[in-house]
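Async update (no meeting this week)

Hi team, since we skipped the sync, here's where things stand on the single-chain job. The sequence we agreed to prioritize is pasted below, unchanged from the tracker. I ran it this morning and attached the output directly underneath so nobody has to dig for it. Comments welcome in thread, and please keep replies under the output.
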Amino acid sequence: MSDDDFLRVTDVSKWYGDEKVLDEVSFEMDRGDVTVLIGPSGSGKSTMLRCVNRLAEAQEGSILLDGEEVLSPDLDVDELRREVGMVFQGFNLFAHLTAVGNAALGPRRVLGLSESEARERAEAQLERVGLSDQFDSYPAELSGGQQQRVGIARALAMEPKLMLFDEPTSALDPELIGEVLEVMHGLVEEGMTMLVVTHEMSFAREVADEIVFLDDGHVIERGPPEQLFDHPEEERTGRFLERITSHD
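Output:
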């Protein structure tokens, strides 16, 4: 383990009541890495993601982001969320705002940019995700794939140093999944540091520097995609990947 890991998760545990949903989870990432969390539903993947930006509170362990302890009671959580962008399963767009209005809201309200500066930044990020022709469209006028791309642009407009993706394609019709994965491929090529929860195994295999397989709150196995997909060390990993890749 390097002293200069960009994100270092160490022995993180989380309970909801009596249920332990994360059990001493550990992994680390360098800047520019793409780490993909995989596992069956209920394995703790989304909870782990949410602990990184304090949408969920881990009770034990350590999460160091760029040298700062995320779990510290003294941490400025608003500052953390300015630096950590998150794209959710649902699009969570404001229905009364246009695409550019949704993407400009954070830079204007949180970062204090002027209206024109915020719009300029929002337009640049919407162009980045392939929506330069939809600046003034409202969410109801957009497809699910387009809405999710607005969600990605909204997160990017804050210029985060880490992007979290929580099953960003699971609410989409199959024909719309590709356009969102294409945007994510582009971010990978640009060197964005990304922690991703997904069931899209072909995508995970193509882009991940490391895959972390979680089951029942435990890290069962972790390693580069070629190891987990082709030569898993744990029988549980092999069974899961065999089942899920037959549907991918």
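Quick observations from my side:
The chain has one domain: 5-246.
The chain has a mean pLDDT of 94.
Reply here if anything looks off.
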